Amino acid sequence: MHDSATPHLPSSPPPASANPLLDFSSLPRFGDIRPMHVEPAIRSLIDENRRLIERLTADPAPPSWDGFVGPMDEAGERLSRAWGVVGHLHSVLDVPEWREAYNAMLPEVSRFYAEVGQNLALFRKYKALHDGPAFATLSPVRQRILEHALRDFRLSGAELPDAQKPRFQAIQEEQSQLAAKFSENLLDATNAHAEWIEDETGLAGIPEDAREAARAAAEAEGRPGWKFTLQMPAYLPVMQYADDRALRARMYRAYATRASELGKPELDNGPLIGRILALRDEEAHMLGYRNFAEVSLVPKMADSPAQVLAFLHELAARAKPFAEQDLEELKAFARAELGLDTLEPWDLAYASEKLREKRYAYSDQEVKQYFPEPKVLDGLFGVIRALYRVDILPDEAPKWDPDVRFFRIEKDAALVGHFYLDLHARSTKRGGAWMDSARSRHRDVWGSDTPLAYLVCNFPGPVNGRPATFTHDDVLTLFHECGHGLHHLLTQVDELAVSGIHGVEWDAVELPSQFMENFCWEWDVLQGMTAHVDSGEPLPRALYDKMIAAKNFQSGMQTVRQLEFSLFDLRLHAEVDASSGPVPIERVMALLDEVRGEVAVLIPPPWHRFPHSFSHIFAGGYAAGYYSYKWAEVLSADAFEAFEEAGAGKGSLLDAETGARFWREILAVGGSRPALESFKAFRGREPRVDALLRHNGMVTPA
Ligand SMILES: [Zn+2]
Q1: What is the mean pLDDT of residues 424-432?
Q2: Closest CA relative to residue 142, chosen from 153, 157, 126
Q3: Interacting residues of 271 by C-beta distance below 8 A, sequence separation 6+
Q4: What single DSSP character describes residue 540?
Q5: pLDDT digits (tens, 9 = 90+) for 285-296
Q6: What is the distance in A from the centroid of ligand 1 to the CA of 305?
Q7: Alpha carbons 467 and 460: distance in angstroms, whole number
Q8: How far is the CA of 454 from the centre of ligand 1 (A)?
Q9: What single string gives the DSSP state of each residue in 86-120?
Q10: In this structure, which long-range contacts are made by residues 11-14, counting pairs with CB atoms below 8 Å and at least 24 apart in sequence?
């Protein structure tokens, strides 16, 4: 989109009033911002940043914080705020004009950030400030910011001898190509198989909505009958509900061997895995580490592969007896009630679903009646008020949709921050739920700002004048995103690079969000945030007890499965020698067998090819990081336990004193100090796994 008034590049930023995207004086001007503003605004901000970097790196004087880092952060924040608004609108108002405006500038923005990360002159300036006499005079927080900046440059190869740089670059490029190919193979292999059912009796057990989708899939190809693909929405209902055991067995085998040598040779991910591991190993050695697991852990909370392994082994030892118990129970049920004498891998989801229905079933629809939106929001705000003694007040701001609400948070009548709440699904909104920063708290010689957050969900809206009602899952999602929001909004840090969620270690960033979810399982809290849409009655105890039982259903088996993936991932990147070239896939499978021997209660058939579809670590950002899911869960459960302890005997765990401490030691400090230090300052000790096990019902009777 071109604005005819400002064709192409303005040589200097237009006055703020001319382009609302360049107006940083207050809240984003959603009422005025149009797609035509994007290109001129973003180009002028990128230019501004480039010119600044040129000027600063050309300056022969030794760099100072206020003369170098300060202006860099300021200019960077302006670009990130403006581009953040564009990205936000692309997500919540995805009409063709906004999509076009976003996509037109995306490559330019990505190129700019890549260029900054590899700018050697810039790296030398940061290093000069770090190594110079001024460093000792900086606050510990500023010293930490500089150290992180250098670390990130270093991990992108900035410190390598010139002769090694082209090879390092080539390794990065080949890795991205291999990751993309891995995903493509998996997708193509997933689409390459389908089960066709001609006779309706073959559908026995499969729910109506899954049948309809399968019918539509067949019709789309002009064929009679039903087509079940290996995509999750088709695969899962078959595995959970199809009475036809042979159908389940065929689907299971097709799914488990995707993108392996057992399918089309051109879609085999095996050789890619070997090559990816070799490249990661080479990269690690070039950077001076012993293996890729060490590289992955550098910016994370965990110190060493050994520490993560010890953590995973401990959790495995504690969870395995419960997993064995879960499996025994399932086997006995399958034998007695389903006539399945041996429980095959393709019976697992099916038998589990039958057992769950029999023992713990309740309808989501029934629960939903107790969670009308206004009551849930009251409950959520009530929890926040009780914990942190803050006020959440409706406020006015320009919005992108009339349905959006806007709130201010005050502490003792002083403004802390603002947030937008965009709860309901719209056809132009991207799916899922997320929290994003619209503005970060900072204060320096250039000015100050309070934080501003977007909280976006995709819940059903009100119908026919009746308030929207939420499932319990929706409520968990809302609390989760609100936890991220509070981390961003309640920060007390004044430095952009580490305020709010900025600079928080990747394996600790889910602590405040998962922490908030715990409140949605508390009887006392639920009493205050539920009211039946018709009767106004709070959630009944019997229904609550069923919800808790269902939550913990097979938690032992689920836990050891996550631990199997985590251990496999970490050991693969810490132990497998890839220094002499691509790792043979047999070696990868052998390691997986070894891990299963230790933690798994269910050993899949020998033809199962799990690694070939493990996208998280081969095509996502989770290499030697899959453990983070459990790691953060342990932290959040243990932090929550402090509230359970404080509330014991008081009748409520919404304890303001513990809340104030959580705010001060965890939420307020953001990335300004190591997450472990923050945790210990709050809890008075290192994290323990006990609370998580207890919350999941894995308690050994005394
Ligand atoms: Zn999250």
Answers
A1: 89
A2: 126
A3: 582, 585
A4: P
A5: 999 999 999 999
A6: 24
A7: 10
A8: 14
A9: HHHHHHHS--HHHHHHHHHHHHHHHHHHHHHHT-H
A10: 12/44, 13/44, 13/45, 13/48, 14/40, 14/44
Amino acid at 259: A
- DSSP H or E segment with residue 523: helix 523-529
Cα 475 to middle of ligand 1, angstroms: 14
Q: Tell me phi and psi for residue 459, to 5 degrees.
A: -90, 160
Q: Ligand 1 mean position to 512 CA, how many Å?
A: 9
CA distance 3 to 35: 9
The per-residue pLDDT for range 572-611, each reduced to its tens digit, is: 999 998 888 999 999 999 999 999 999 999 999 999 999 9
pLDDT value, residue 158: 87
How many degrees, rounded to 5, is the angle at CA 418 between CA 415 and CA 421?
150
Read off the pLDDT band of 520 (50, 70, 90). Answer: very high
Can 481 be counted among the known catalytic residues?
yes
Task: Give 448's strand partners.
Answer: 443
Q: Give me ligand 1 centre to Cα 81, in Å.
A: 21
* Confidence (pLDDT) at 622: 93
56 C-alpha to ligand 1 centroid (Å): 37
Helix, strand or coil, per DSSP, at residue 436: strand
Res 16 pLDDT > 50: no
- Residue from 39, 77, 283, 481 carrying the catalytic annotation: 481
Report how far residue 465's alpha carbon sits from residue 471's, in angstroms, rounded to the nearest whole number.
Answer: 19
DSSP state, 612? G
pLDDT band with cut points at 50, 70 and 90 for residue 3: very low
Contact 227, 213 (CB under 8 A): no
CA of 626 to the centre of ligand 1 (A): 15
In DSSP terms, 392 is beta-bridged to 409
C-alpha separations of 551 from 361, 368, 517, 554 in Å: 11, 16, 13, 9
Q: Which residues pair with 407 in a beta bridge?
A: 394, 419
Q: What's the chain's average pLDDT?
A: 93
Kindly give the distance from the C-alpha atom of residue 513 to the centroid of ligand 1, in angstroms, as a whole number. Answer: 6
- Global confidence as pTM: 0.89
